[in-house]
User: Which sequence fits this backbone?
């Protein structure tokens, strides 16, 4: 076996081995059992709760939890907007970076708030250290904490009893940040510092290259930023080039650490559910469904990338390293291909290569990863998305065995179906509708006025393409898919820092973040209030391979097939036209 | 139903009626209730407009013939779906009509109130004018005009018109057999009946309305499924509408017919078209089993039942106990004991008494006893017997007999006590026979468990339904029979309120309970149970309390009802799966056809090798249409239910309807394309 492939396998297996004990630890945190980190954080937490006058033992209904979640998110949004539009005069700005324009600030604030990190700005020149640390890094922590807290509410609601009290949202949120995210982040950041990632308050450095040019090198509190960027599946890089940048991701070891840290929590949350609900087998079924989906995307992508570009092959150019366009030599094809799919099935969206330069089929697989958005998915929210498909599969499967559908002893009825269907529909609706609008504008080369101006000062819609034709279509589709999946990666060929793309993507981000949190929490909350029905011989068993297959099929048919015509006009057409 | 015809689904008269209705149902106002088919109708009207547009000179939409064919296929799709529903309704109606025949205007002998007292002044009025609370009189050969309760008299009644059972039944005032049904015929005697229902509201009337579809309300599961289907329809509205700007960007003009075809093929028309037919035929199947469900919901709930409460007598065991063995007391001649046992049962009309004579194998008349006096069983003496000359023979329960014997100063032989205990332990009932207060022996009565009942319980257990036996027997006997019959639990020495308590207790754990009952004292329990099946012979109160009425008075009917309920849900689930799975092949037929002209490279997606874009689209739409009538028999008969456990059932159905649903349209569309290709 070659070393590159071995590296990829070690990353995957290593993550699994770490995720199992972590899942147990997370289950304990949410169940309120003591964990070793309590000794450090309990006193600090008590102070927090005292100041904010929150009683963490005061249990909330699902509606109260959602109200708390949305309110606190709104406050964070306002804080981020303030930082971004005023960073020029705010402290800790050694490189004198200007404030962001309102539309860019909106896009940036929203995309960090919703755990997406669609970066239409460039880190080195678009955000001060103050903004990076107190607005963006802060949001990376709390947005991950929000997702995890929402998942914790759903775990609580799925327990075998009838109640409307589902724990305290603030308690879940704070515990997610302090007991889970913070300790692991400190560890990850330390590894990065030892491998050369900057962690400093000083401004740009200047050096003279061997050619004799003077080069300015951006630095800053990078190591801290990179840790939560991956652990919280945020993906927003400190530098514009993200994890392809040599200071953000210096070597193969840091690459492995970043890879493991981004898949770690999505794995662990599934196992945490299994332990929390005492349904380990169910957790393994869910994890297997996710893994099979992941493998079906990652294996073809790796093969495609290793085989190289057929256009170059036709010209007689040997490609021993595979398709190396847009890839870093220190990571090479296997690790970059693996990363590209991992980062898209999970809602990280960090990149260690340029997705635009992948083969069309690989691009399609990245798109599919985001369209399905629950083969692991983001921290907390990945499980919530998966939960929606489980509800749909339970409904169809329940009918198929001749019984009113039920999941974990609770009936699934019209109200739950309505919510599940709305959430399931939202994703294709947002992606297709907005891509349709941009396609329409591009097809008619519309005059965009204020909404869009290209480098030459023209307002034509086609000006936002660097690559027209099928690839241009893929770029638009990718941008909105990435926004709707709260992923944040980009096919970078698109000129997206302008009011049109900033605002339209911002709107998608808000809808696609909050409805898929509200929906599952509401479904679980309503189900929690229902009578618990013990399992009988006629009950549909959800912890079986057959049910896993059904969930998988429902996902493919709802999420993937709805995009088939769009994919046919983008990556598939490009692939067949090679 | 015994008198039920089994002559297939498509009978002449019914089909003609259904065909007519298929067109009537095209009315958008009616179709609006079914969102999936309503959108197909919109598509059809758009295609009609396109056809007219082409006739007026439009040239970019393809040939008139091609567009018109698509219009016709969409029309057929709608007609097929309407036909399925109409056929189910027509079958229900035919079923109802045969019952209604019995309810045609019959003259009723109404008792008219005169002053403060009832005089037997009788007025002949049409039965439709009888109101609730009226009294009427029925004599020999009269047809009972409407449902009611006997207040005076006893009569033998021929209920074959309702139950199909030819043996006449006895109905009398008071007790649990006081109810009479309209349309049945008096064979003897005279009764006075109080009307219990308003005209047009009797059980039969209600049921007729239900199966005719007029008052059919959507069940909770049906509503949830409709949401799912509406959701799927919406997804494809989005897919098809957004395709237009995508195509414009790619400079790929797509004809309107192609959009409409793609849309109609992708939305779940198969299940959408068959959904109401499935619901109606579920009610119809219940009716064919001779069960009147008061609502579709009741049938559906039956599929969810976890616990089944069954009376022992008549359900688990054959009617009554039978004598199986004579245990002679020590020192008594066996033949003599048997003779006395037979004599004591000479005038005993109970099935137990008859079975003793049967077991003895003699005719007690042949003993020629002189001027015998028969002692009837009373609740006080708890024994029965015969006196002749100086001989007094008694038979009765062990404790009563022991008291009698010991009161007379005799010893109750310990061997007989042993026998008694042994019989009780084996689930039997001991009857002690004494002559002049000395013990002769014990007759062992045993419950005879119905043949095949164990298998039925096993089948239920595999369905996930637990059975509970309700009996008045002592716990020892009950336990024995419960084990022998294979029920999961039992209620011994049950009083009517015990049933109620048990149901409440089980329901509190979240389980659904079904029970069957006939007496007035069953009514509260019937109302409490999630599915309460009242026997048609039962009291009006019982029938009112339950949500189903079994016309056959067959206690094992519950088992069939559970299967009908499960079948109903399964048929919906499997056809939904099938319908959605079909989309995979349809995508691969239509998507390449949409783009292939402008983007020839996409011919790689045409994995079925369909001849041309037009033939591909036509084949997909034709397949989509004809699959509906092909599945009508399945929708009406229901998917076969196999009690193999939920997991195995899911595996089986997922394999047949899921994998089958993916593979079949690939084959079907390819075959249709081969045929269509000949003409294009």
Assistant:
């Amino acid at each position: 076996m070659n070393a590159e492939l071995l590296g990829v396998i070690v990353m995957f297996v290593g993550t699994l081995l770490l995720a199992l004990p972590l899942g147990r630890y997370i289950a304990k945190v949410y169940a309120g059992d003591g964990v070793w980190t309590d000794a450090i954080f309990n006193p600090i937490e008590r102070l927090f709760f005292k100041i904010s006058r929150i009683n963490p033992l005061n249990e909330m209904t699902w509606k109260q939890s959602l109200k708390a979640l949305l309110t606190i998110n709104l406050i964070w949004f306002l804080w981020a907007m303030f930082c971004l539009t005023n960073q020029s005069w705010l402290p800790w700005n050694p490189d004198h970076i200007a404030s962001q324009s309102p539309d860019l600030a909106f896009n940036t604030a929203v995309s960090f708030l919703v755990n997406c990190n669609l970066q239409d700005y460039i880190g080195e020149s678009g955000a001060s250290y103050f903004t990076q640390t107190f607005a963006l890094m802060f949001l990376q922590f709390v947005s991950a904490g929000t997702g995890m807290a929402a998942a914790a509410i759903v775990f609580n609601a799925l327990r075998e009893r009838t109640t409307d009290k589902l724990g305290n949202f603030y308690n879940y949120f704070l515990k997610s940040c302090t007991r889970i995210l913070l300790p692991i982040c400190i560890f990850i950041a330390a590894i990065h510092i030892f491998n050369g990632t900057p962690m400093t308050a000083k401004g740009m450095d200047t050096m003279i290259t061997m050619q004799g040019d003077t080069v300015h090198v951006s630095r800053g509190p990078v190591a801290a930023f990179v840790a939560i960027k991956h652990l919280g599946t945020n993906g927003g890089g400190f530098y514009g080039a993200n994890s392809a940048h040599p200071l953000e991701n210096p070597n193969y070891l840091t690459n492995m650490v970043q890879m493991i840290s981004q898949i770690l929590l999505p794995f662990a949350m599934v196992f945490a559910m299994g332990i929390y609900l005492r349904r380990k087998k169910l957790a393994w079924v869910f994890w297997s469904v996710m893994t099979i989906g992941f493998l079906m995307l990652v294996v073809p992508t790796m093969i495609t990338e290793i085989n190289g570009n057929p256009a170059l092959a036709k010209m007689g150019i040997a490609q021993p390293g595979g398709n190396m366009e847009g890839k870093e030599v220190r990571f090479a094809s296997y690790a970059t291909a693996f990363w590209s799919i991992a980062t898209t099935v999970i809602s990280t969206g960090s990149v260690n290569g340029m997705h635009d330069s992948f083969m069309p089929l690989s691009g399609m697989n990245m798109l599919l990863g985001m369209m399905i958005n629950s083969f692991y998915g983001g921290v907390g929210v990945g499980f919530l998305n998966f939960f929606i498909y489980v509800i749909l599969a339970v409904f169809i499967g329940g009918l198929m065995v001749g019984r009113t559908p039920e999941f974990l002893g609770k009936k699934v009825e019209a109200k739950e179906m309505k919510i599940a269907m709305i959430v399931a529909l939202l994703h294709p609706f947002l992606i297709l509708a907005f891509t349709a609008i941009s396609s329409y504008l591009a097809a008619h080369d519309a005059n965009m006025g204020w909404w869009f101006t290209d480098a030459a000062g023209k307002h034509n819609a086609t000006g936002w393409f660097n690559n027209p034709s099928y690839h241009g279509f893929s770029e638009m589709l990718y941008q909105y898919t990435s926004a709707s999946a709260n992923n944040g990666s980009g096919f970078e060929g698109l000129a997206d820092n302008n009011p049109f793309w900033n605002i339209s993507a911002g709107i998608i981000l808000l809808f696609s973040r909050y409805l898929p949190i509200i929906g599952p929490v509401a479904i679980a909350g309503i189900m929690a209030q229902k009578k618990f029905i013990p399992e009988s011989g006629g009950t549909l068993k959800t912890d079986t391979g057959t049910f896993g297959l059904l969930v998988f099929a429902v996902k493919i048919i709802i999420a993937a097939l709805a995009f088939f015509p769009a994919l046919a006009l983008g990556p598939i057409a490009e692939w067949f036209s090679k | 139903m015994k008198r039920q015809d089994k002559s297939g689904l498509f009978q002449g008269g019914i089909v003609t009626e259904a065909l007519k209705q298929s067109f009537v149902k095209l009315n958008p106002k009616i179709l609006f209730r079914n969102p999936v088919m309503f959108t197909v109708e919109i598509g059809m009207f758009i295609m009609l407009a396109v056809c007219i547009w082409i006739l007026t000179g439009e040239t970019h939409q393809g040939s008139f013939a091609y567009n018109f064919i698509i219009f016709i296929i969409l029309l057929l799709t709608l007609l097929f779906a309407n036909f399925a529903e109409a056929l189910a309704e027509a079958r229900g109606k035919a079923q109802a009509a045969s019952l209604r025949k019995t309810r045609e205007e019959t003259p009723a002998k109404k008792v008219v109130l005169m002053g403060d007292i009832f005089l037997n002044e009788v007025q002949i009025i049409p039965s439709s004018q009888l109101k609730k609370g009226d009294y009427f009189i029925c004599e020999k050969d009269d047809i009972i005009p409407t449902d009611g309760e006997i207040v005076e008299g006893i009569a033998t009644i021929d209920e074959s018109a309702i139950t199909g059972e030819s043996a006449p039944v006895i109905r009398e005032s008071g007790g649990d057999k006081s109810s009479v049904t309209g349309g049945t015929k008096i064979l003897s005697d005279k009764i006075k009946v109080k009307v219990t229902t308003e005209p047009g509201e009797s059980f039969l009337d209600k049921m007729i309305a239900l199966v005719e579809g007029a008052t059919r309300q959507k069940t909770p599961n049906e509503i949830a499924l409709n949401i799912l289907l509406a959701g799927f329809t919406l997804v494809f509205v989005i897919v098809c509408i957004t395709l237009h700007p995508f195509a414009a960007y790619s400079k790929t003009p797509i004809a309107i017919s192609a959009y409409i075809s793609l849309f109609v093929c992708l939305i779940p028309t198969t299940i959408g078209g068959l959904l109401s037919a499935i619901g109606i035929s579920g009610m119809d199947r219940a009716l064919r089993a001779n069960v009147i469900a008061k609502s579709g919901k009741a049938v559906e709930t039956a599929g969810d039942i976890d616990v089944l409460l069954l009376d022992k007598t008549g359900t688990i065991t054959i009617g009554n106990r039978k004598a199986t063995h004579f245990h002679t007391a020590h020192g008594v001649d066996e033949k003599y004991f048997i003779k006395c046992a037979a004599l004591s049962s000479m005038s005993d009309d109970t099935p137990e008494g008859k079975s003793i004579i049967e077991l003895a194998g003699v005719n007690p008349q042949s003993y020629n006893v002189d001027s015998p006096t028969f002692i009837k069983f009373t609740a006080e003496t708890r024994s029965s017997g015969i006196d002749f000359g100086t001989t007094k023979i008694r038979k009765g329960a062990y404790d009563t007999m022991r008291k009698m014997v010991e009161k007379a100063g005799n010893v109750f032989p310990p061997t007989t006590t042993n026998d008694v205990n042994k019989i009780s332990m084996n689930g039997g009932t001991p009857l002690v026979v004494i002559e002049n207060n000395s013990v002769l022996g014990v007759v062992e009565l045993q419950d005879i468990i119905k043949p095949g009942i164990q298998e039925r319980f096993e089948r239920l257990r595999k369905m996930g339904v637990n059975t509970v036996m309700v009996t008045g027997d002592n716990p020892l006997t009950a336990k024995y029979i419960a084990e022998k019959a294979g029920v999961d639990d039992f209620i011994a020495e049950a009083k009517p309120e015990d049933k109620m308590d048990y149901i409440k207790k089980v329901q509190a754990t979240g389980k659904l309970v079904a029970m069957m009952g006939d007496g007035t004292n069953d009514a509260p329990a019937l109302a409490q149970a999630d599915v309460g099946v009242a026997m048609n012979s039962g009291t009006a109160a019982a029938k009112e309390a339950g949500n189903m009425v079994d016309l056959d008075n067959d206690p094992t009917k519950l088992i069939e009802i559970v299967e009908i309920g499960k079948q109903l849900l399964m048929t919906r689930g499997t056809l939904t799966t099938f319908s959605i799975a079909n989309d995979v092949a349809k995508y691969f037929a239509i998507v390449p056809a949409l783009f292939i002209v402008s983007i020839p490279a996409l011919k790689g997606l045409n994995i079925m090798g369909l001849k041309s874009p037009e033939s591909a689209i036509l084949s997909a739409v034709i397949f989509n249409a004809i699959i509906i009538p092909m599945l009508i028999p399945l929708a009406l008969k229901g998917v076969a239910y196999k009690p193999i456990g939920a997991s195995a059932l899911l595996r089986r159905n997922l394999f047949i309807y899921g994998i089958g649903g993916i593979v079949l349209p690939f084959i079907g569309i390819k075959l249709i394309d081969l045929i269509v290709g000949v003409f294009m």
In short: Chain A touches chain B through 66 residues (CB under 8 Å). Chain A is about 60% helix and 0% strand. Strands of chain A lie at 205-208, 214-217, 406-407, 410-411. The mean pLDDT of chain A is 92.
